Each structure stands twice: as structure tokens, then as C-alpha cells.
UniProtKB/TrEMBL annotation, chain A:
GO terms for molecular function: lyase activity; NADH dehydrogenase (ubiquinone) activity; oxidoreductase activity. One of its GO terms (biological process) is ATP synthesis coupled electron transport. Keywords: Cell membrane, Lyase, Membrane, Oxidoreductase, Transmembrane, Transmembrane helix. InterPro entries: ComplexI-like_HydComp, NADH_UbQ_OxRdtase, ND/Mrp_TM. The chain crosses the membrane at residues 6-26, 38-57, 82-105, 112-131, 137-156, 168-188, 208-233, 245-262, 274-297, 304-329, 341-364, 384-405, 425-458, 479-500, 537-554, 622-643, 649-667. Pfam families: Proton_antipo_M. This is Formate hydrogenlyase subunit 3/multisubunit Na+/H+ antiporter MnhD subunit. It comes from the Bacteria. It is a multi-pass membrane protein. It is found in: Cell membrane; Membrane.
UniProtKB/TrEMBL annotation, chain B:
PANTHER family: HYDROGENASE-4 COMPONENT E (PTHR38601). It is a multi-pass membrane protein. This is Hydrogenase-4 component E. The chain crosses the membrane at residues 6-28, 35-56, 62-85, 97-118, 124-145, 157-178, 184-204. Keywords: Cell membrane, Membrane, Transmembrane, Transmembrane helix. It is found in: Cell membrane.
């Protein structure tokens, strides 16, 4: 027996997750055993996955063929650098989420804890298998297990009508996406019947069929990632799910779709056409802008984050589009830069978005409230959660020195070179897209200020919030781990990039690592130090020093004259907590400016109302433009079909009989 | 040598013709008890024809098939059905949607179609039983027709079982029977199907106070 290869360890890890899940069925009602024993074990396995994948980066690919599968159709697995980057993301993110979940799941939340644990760990294992799969069959099996287990997790609290609805919508769109992916794989085999990825790489498709495969993959993976207009499940399913599940779905599951898109467009499809990139760029931009605008006007904290996830996926797809464009014109160094931005943003988003979703879970447990309008001032009651959420918020807003800034900066850097594209339209239009990306980043900042400010700052809007308590130890550890990841990704960009560069190298043939190694680890200058560079540590030290200096100066100069009053009351003693800026009020300017983007249902009180009330409901245009007409069409068509369903068994039998007779007569030799 | 083969072939054809005749008789039969008896006779004829094929070709597994047929289709299933009828106390006349003479005429048309369709296949076949393929197909179609035209649940089940008889005959005549595993599987399926349908009879009667399946139109999803 030779030594264990990394791929074997990952496979054992997947089996371990499954075993942990099954172990929960021994005592499905025992919350203590499942939460305090099994979930931490799952976190250990996650750590193993992350470390093995991290250690693997830069090695040459390994393959394995499993004995399980259909006869003559075994599962093929392969571990290469692209897989390793995403497996690392899965492993490290799941550590934080699993530890947090150990403290989060309590008695009496819908499904029994054992069932929940099984679904959760099957979800983890199937995501790992999605990444490892090396043939379409294994991929689809893992992909569907992932969809199904996450559906069951979303509907954990299935007693509520709207949660069941959200779950159903999610399952529906997941299936539409899966069909598109399956068709895409079918096109890529081009009739050879060889469903392994190696077989697909060997095919040379004509541009038409390659484009068909690419577009199908974009639709299929886009449905899972939440690209407009197939994003509608996301803002429904994420708030419906328990917070660790939302974190896992938003942080990791959406990335498996990105992984699939990268795998298909750069690895499996050999050819590349420049307009593929333009399509991805356009879809990504629309998604990002749509997501960020809707996230600014949400009043439910988890919906806000869900729309923010849509925005981030949009930015990632913009990066993929840019990479495709540069790659098609053989500008490989720039393609590598954009690809690095994509991978980095995947890692960054996995960290900070799961952190934020988990924070909403703690707030939800402490206050039983998810509407922003009823929160406020929680930093006094929940300092741990508040400060850790601040890290996530800064990263999500794309501010230095945390992770979100690095990836968005890299993305904008690669945009700055797009005027050099040798195409008369692209070199003028793509830079405009950069402006939109900048707008998205700014609006993301706005949404995050709203999220943090309304929940944690100011005064408590409801008296009940006084009883809020901080998160428990498990939850604090989980949150701190994710915050640590966010911080490390923020201040050590060169180190991280030189590790994940192996994946860029694998897909594009070039990478950034050589350039980065010439410089020190503290500095990030992807093209050249003269052009643009970023030294996160120096930045961090400067900011910290300035803040400390400012504080010291204030203490020194204004000693004794500092007066404390209630926050956010503008200095007026007669204003209560309800007079603070509200969630609706804060985003009112955005609603006004981007009026056309929303479908608003507003009720304003008039002077004669006996019971005056104010309500504003923001709805998605796509429901009315796309989904409801589609639903009506399906309903009409199925109405035609019901004519066939008479309810008489004799008639049904006659149908089969006539079919049989017809076939016999037609198929006569 | 050739004389014995031709004699056994004649015997097989005789039994096949008997099966077809019984199928017509079932189509025309109005009484439930008689219908079940006819089904039992058909099973017996099927068993005998299989036995003749087994003797003349020396295919040992066909003996098993014949035994199975005898046990299941000539004895066990008719007994179950008889018991059901007694328990349910349904000795009424069978109502049919189309009157009997018309049904018979349609049946004759179907036999012609079956012979027409099966002719090219029998030409290709090299078995001594190839002539019976057309009959087997006709039996399947007649049984199907019976299921369509009857309104009560028990004749429908008998039709379903008779259809299986036709399929079995087709299998024996075209390829000297299916592999044993398949045959055992089908036999078990038929048995289980009959038992489940028996349970359903009680449920249907519970629900509608009648075994007339026309009542089930109400179950339609509107």
C-alpha cells in the first residue's frame, strides 16, 4: 500500500462527512450529542479538507476511479489546482460554519437535529464531490445530491407556508439549471458517448456547438449562482433557511456554480470566442447592479445579504467575462490578472458573506427579529457579534484592509487595461463597464452601512432588545475564525495569490506568481510597482496609528469636556429611539434615484386617515415580466391537456390500445 | 422424425387455437363466475401447449414454466378470484360499454390485424411454434379490448391477467420462453398485482358502494 495521495484523503473526508451525518441518525433527537459532538467533528474534517487542498496547490493533477457507479460507468475523480482552490474554500469556510452551527442549532426548530445533521453533512460531502468529479455522470449525481440536500435544509422549518414556497421555487430552478448543465455536457461529448471530462477535452467542437455548450452552461450554472434573470430563488431561499445553511449556501454553494462555469468555459471547451466574454460581462454587470440596488432597499437583514450575494456573484461573472475576452485575444497576462480577481473574490466572498449570515443568525436568536426596522443599538448588548460583523461589513463594502478590497481592486485593475483590446468596439465599451463596476462597489458600501448601522448602531428601536444577549462560545469561535480568514485574505494578498496562482496557471497557461515573487510578500503589484501597488499592512498600520493618534489627541486636548448623550438623536433631548433614521428612510434616496429599477407599492397616509399607516413594498420586476407570464403560459397549455384526462379508465385504456395498434401498424417490417 | 415434429406442431396449433377461442369466449361472456372459469381453462390450455413445446424440443426449463402456469393461472389465481367474488357478493351480469356482437366484430378485426402484423416476424423465426405468434398477439389485443369494454373492476382484472397469458404464449412461440428469472419475476408480478387489485376492490366498494369503475371518474383532478 503506497502512501495516501491528497485525492484519497479528500475522498476519505467526503466519506467521513457522510459517516458523521449518518451517525446522527443513531440518536436523531439528541440535540446535545449532535450539536456538540458531530458538528465539531465535521469542522475538523473541513479543516482537513482545507489544509490538504492548500498543500496540494501547485502539484500535478491526480485521478482516481471509484468502484461505485453504474455497471461500466464508474465514477471518475480528479484533483487538480482549480479543484483544490475551491476545495480549500469549501474546507476552510465550513470549519467556521460547522463550529458556529454547533452552538446554533437548538431543540424544536422544525426537522429533528439528527436529520438536520445528516442533510448538512451530505450537503458538504456532495459539494466536495462536485469539485472532484471528472465525468459528467459523477458530476450530475453530486450536483443533484447537493441541490436536494440543500433543499431539505432550506425547508427545515417546513411548518411555514412561505418557507415551503421558497423551497419549492429553489428546487424548481435548481432542476431547470441541472437540465441545462446536462444538455451542455451532452453537447460537449458531441455524440462520442464518452462522458468523462478527459473525453470532452479531446473533442473539437465547431464554434456553433461550442457556443451552444457554453451558453447552456452559463444558464445552468447561472441558475445555481443566481444570475439575473434566474436569481429569484435566492432572495427567497436564503432568508427561509437557518442561518448556518444560508451561510453555507451563499458562501460555498454559489461558488460551486462558479467552479462549474470556469471548468466548462476554460477547461472542457478548448475553443474560445470573444463574444462569450461579452455575454458573461453583460450578464454579470446586470446581475451585479440589480443585486446591489435591491440589497440597498431591503428591510429584512437576510434578504439584504441575499441580494448582496447576487451582486457579488455578478462581479465574479464580470471577472470571468473579462478573462474570456482577454484570453480570446491572447492577452494572457491580463487574463491571468482578471482570473486571479475572480478566484480571489470567490475566496473573499465565501469568508465575509458566511460571516455576515452567521451574524444575522446570532441577532435572530438574541432578538427573534429579522426586520431591520425593529433592531438597533445592538452593539451594546452583543459586542462580539457587532465587532466581528464589522469585519464582514468592511470586507463586503470593498474597503481596505480586508479581503473584499483586494479582489475588487484587482478586478478594476484588469479593467484599466481593457482599452488595449484590439477590437474597435470592445476597447470603448468595456471601460464603461468599469464605471458600472465602480458604481456597484459604491452602492455595496451603502448597503453595508445600512446593514451595520441599522442593526448595531444608534439606539434600540424596541424595548425588547434590552434583553438581547451576546452569542455563545461556539458561535463566537466560528465567527472569529471566519473574521480571521477575512483579515488574512485582506493583509496577505501576495501570499494567497502565489498559492492560488496554480489554478490560474492551469487554466490560462500563465500566472501572476513570478511577478509577485520579485516583490516582497507585503506588497501587491500585479502588473508593475510603477503602475499600481497596494501594501495592505502599511495601510493597516497607518490607519491604526491615525486612529490612535486622533483618540489620544481628543483625550488630551478635550480632556473633561467630552459629553455623552444617546446616539443618533441629533442632540435633541426630546427625540425617542423611534425617531432615528429607519431602514426605509435610509434607502429612500436610492429608491428615488433608481425608480425605474423597482416595482414599488407604496401606501402613504393622508390627513383624513383614521388609522394612518405607511408601507412600502419593493418587488422584483422579473416576476411580472418573466415568471408570471411563463406560469400563465404553462397553466394554459396544461389546461389544454386536461381535455385528454376524462377520468374514465376505459378511455385511458383505449389511448394505450390505439397507441399500441398504431405502433404495430407503423412499425411493420 | 419429421412426422413427430409435425404432429407436435399440430398439437401446439390446436392448443393455440383453443386459447384464441377461449379469448373470444371471454369477450362474449356476461357472467363473472363463468368468466373466471374461462380464464382458468385458458391457463390450462396455455400450460398444455407449453408442455407440448417442452416435450418436442427438449427445453427443460419449459417444464418449469408449464408447471408454474398450471399452478398460478389455472389454479391459484382463479381460486383467488372466486373467493373475491364470493366475499364481495358480486354475481351480477357483466355490463359492457359496447354490446357483445359489436365487440366480437371488433375482435375479429383485431385478429386480422394481428395476423397481418405478425406474419413477417413468423417468417423470420425458426421455431416450430412460429405459427402461434399471430395468435398470441391476437390474444393480447382481445384481452386489451375486454379491459376497455368492461365497466366492472373484476372483468378488467381478468382481462389484465388474460393479456399476460397472451404475452406468455408469444414468448414461448417466438423464442421457446423467456429466461427463467424473467418468467419467475413476471409470475410473481402477476400474483402480487392480483392481490393488490383484490385489496383495491374492497376499497372501491367501500368508497362507492359498487365495483363499477365509472364511479372513479369523480376522482379526476379538476
Amino acid at each position: 500500500m503506497s502512501t495516501l495521495l491528497p485525492i484519497d484523503i479528500l475522498l476519505i473526508a467526503a466519506c467521513a462527512w457522510l459517516a458523521i451525518g449518518l451517525a446522527g441518525l443513531v440518536a436523531p433527537g439528541n440535540t446535545r450529542f449532535i450539536a456538540k459532538t458531530l458538528f465539531p467533528l465535521g469542522a475538523l474534517v473541513g479543516m482537513l479538507v482545507g489544509l490538504v487542498a492548500l498543500g496540494f496547490l501547485g502539484e500535478s493533477p491526480e485521478t482516481a476511479v471509484l468502484v461505485v457507479g453504474l455497471p461500466d460507468l464508474p465514477f471518475h475523480l480528479r484533483l487538480d489546482n482549480l479543484t483544490a482552490v475551491f476545495a480549500m474554500l469549501l474546507g476552510f469556510t465550513s470549519v467556521g460554519i460547522s463550529i458556529y452551527a454547533a452552538g446554533y442549532f437548538r431543540q424544536g426548530q422544525g426537522s429533528a437535529p439528527g436529520v438536520l445533521g445528516l442533510e448538512y453533512h451530505v450537503f458538504l460531502a456532495s459539494m466536495l464531490l462536485v469539485l472532484l468529479a471528472d465525468d459528467a455522470y459523477a458530476f450530475m449525481v453530486a450536483w443533484e445530491s447537493m441541490a436536494l440536500s440543500s433543499f431539505l435544509l432550506v425547508t427545515t422549518d417546513h411548518r411555514h407556508e412561505e418557507i415551503r414556497r421558497a423551497g419549492f421555487l429553489y428546487l424548481l430552478i435548481a432542476h431547470v439549471g441541472a437540465i441545462a448543465i446536462l444538455l451542455s455536457f451532452g453537447v460537449m461529448t458531441s455524440g462520442s458517448g464518452d462522458y468523462t471530462f478527459a473525453g470532452m477535452r479531446a473533442q473539437h467542437l465547431s464554434p456553433f456547438w461550442a457556443s451552444a455548450a457554453y451558453l447552456l452552461a452559463l444558464v445552468g450554472f447561472g441558475a445555481k449562482a443566481g444570475l439575473v434573470p434566474i436569481h429569484v430563488w435566492l432572495p427567497e431561499a436564503h432568508p427561509a433557511a437557518p442561518s448556518p445553511v444560508s451561510a453555507m449556501m451563499s458562501g460555498v454553494m454559489l461558488k460551486t456554480a462558479i467552479y462549474g462555469l470556469l471548468r466548462v468555459s476554460f477547461d472542457l471547451l478548448g475553443s474560445d470566442l470573444w463574444w462569450w466574454g461579452v455575454v458573461a460581462l453583460a450578464v454579470g454587470l446586470v446581475t451585479a447592479l440589480f443585486g446591489v440596488l435591491y440589497s440597498t432597499v431591503q428591510n429584512d437583514m437576510k434578504r439584504l445579504l441575499a441580494y448582496s450575494s447576487i451582486e457579488n456573484i455578478g462581479l465574479i461573472v464580470v471577472g470571468i467575462g473579462l478573462t474570456l475576452i482577454f484570453h480570446a485575444y491572447r492577452m494572457e497576462a491580463l487574463a491571468a490578472l482578471a482570473m486571479t480577481a475572480v478566484l480571489y473574490h470567490c475566496l473573499a466572498h465565501a469568508g465575509f458573506k458566511s460571516l455576515l449570515f452567521l451574524c444575522t443568525g446570532s441577532v435572530l436568536h438574541a432578538t427573534k427579529e429579522r426586520s431591520l426596522g425593529k433592531l438597533g443599538g445592538l452593539i451594546h448588548r452583543m459586542p462580539w457579534v457587532a465587532w466581528l460583523a464589522l469585519a464582514g461589513v468592511i470586507a463586503s463594502a470593498g474597503l481596505p484592509p480586508l479581503s473584499g478590497f483586494v479582489s475588487e481592486w484587482l478586478l478594476l485593475q484588469s479593467f484599466l487595461f481593457s482599452p488595449g483590446l484590439p477590437h474597435p468596439w470592445l476597447n470603448m465599451v468595456v471601460p464603461v463597464a468599469a464605471a458600472l463596476v465602480a458604481l456597484v462597489a459604491a452602492l455595496a458600501g451603502f448597503a453595508m452601512v445600512k446593514f451595520f448601522g441599522i442593526i448595531f448602531l444608534g439606539q434600540m428601536r424596541e424595548p425588547a432588545l434590552k434583553d438581547a444577549h451576546d452569542a455563545g462560545t461556539w458561535e463566537k469561535v466560528g465567527l472569529s475564525w471566519l473574521a480571521l480568514l477575512t483579515l488574512l485574505l485582506g493583509i496577505l494578498p501576495s501570499t494567497v495569490i502565489s498559492r492560488i496562482d496554480a489554478a490560474t496557471h492551469q487554466l490560462l497557461g500563465v500566472g501572476l506568481a513570478d511577478k509577485l515573487n520579485e516583490q516582497g510578500w507585503w506588497m501587491l503589484a500585479p502588473i508593475s510597482p510603477e503602475r499600481a501597488s497596494y501594501e495592505p499592512l502599511i495601510f493597516l498600520v497607518t490607519i491604526a496609528a491615525t486612529l490612535l493618534l486622533g483618540r489620544w489627541l481628543v483625550r488630551r486636548l478635550y480632556h473633561g469636556r467630552v459629553r455623552r448623550t444617546a446616539a443618533w438623536d441629533c442632540g435633541y433631548w426630546f427625540q425617542g429611539p423611534r425617531a432615528q433614521d429607519t431602514a426605509e428612510g435610509f434607502s429612500q434616496p436610492i429608491r428615488r434615484i433608481f425608480d425605474v429599477m423597482f416595482r414599488l407599492e407604496m401606501h402613504l397616509p393622508t390627513a383624513r386617515d383614521s388609522k394612518p399607516y405607511y408601507s412600502v413594498k419593493v418587488e422584483d420586476h422579473f416576476w411580472y415580466w418573466l415568471y408570471l407570464p411563463l406560469a400563465r403560459l404553462v397553466s394554459a397549455v396544461s389546461g389544454l391537456v386536461t381535455a385528454v384526462q376524462g377520468g374514465r379508465i376505459a378511455v385511458y385504456l383505449l389511448y394505450s390500445f390505439l397507441t399500441l395498434l398504431g405502433l404495430l401498424l407503423v412499425a411493420r417490417p | 422424425m419429421s412426422a413427430t415434429i409435425s404432429f407436435s406442431a399440430q398439437l401446439i396449433n390446436l392448443f393455440a387455437a383453443l386459447i384464441l377461442l377461449l379469448a373470444f369466449a371471454m369477450l362474449a361472456q356476461r357472467r363473472v363466475m363463468q368468466l373466471i372459469n374461462l380464464f382458468a381453462y385458458q391457463g390450462l390450455a396455455l400450460c398444455l401447449s407449453t408442455l407440448v413445446v417442452a416435450v418436442s424440443t427438449g427445453q427443460t426449463h419449459l417444464y418449469w414454466s408449464a408447471g408454474l402456469t398450471l399452478l398460478l393461472k389455472a389454479l391459484l389465481l382463479p381460486w383467488i378470484l372466486h373467493r373475491l367474488v364470493r366475499r364481495l357478493q358480486v354475481k351480477w351480469d357483466v355490463e359492457s360499454l359496447i354490446n357483445i356482437p359489436t365487440t366480437m366484430l371488433v375482435g375479429i378485426g383485431l385478429v386480422i390485424v394481428a395476423f397481418n402484423v405478425a406474419h413477417p416476424i413468423s417468417e423470420l423465426s425458426s421455431t416450430i411454434t412460429r405459427g402461434t405468434l399471430a395468435i398470441a398477439l391476437a390474444v393480447v389485443m382481445l384481452a386489451f379490448l375486454m379491459m376497455i369494454t368492461r365497466t366492472k373492476a373484476i372483468p378488467q382484472v381478468v382481462g389484465f391477467l388474460a393479456m399476460e397469458n397472451g404475452l406468455f404464449l408469444a414468448a414461448t412461440s417466438a423464442t421457446y420462453g423467456m429466461p427463467m428469472v424473467v418468467e419467475l419475476g413476471i409470475a410473481l408480478d402477476v400474483l402480487v398485482g392480483a392481490i393488490i387489485l383484490g385489496v383495491f376492490f374492497f376499497q372501491i366498494r367501500e368508497q362507492f358502494d359498487s365495483l363499477d369503475i365509472r364511479h372513479m371518474e369523480r376522482l379526476k383532478d379538476n
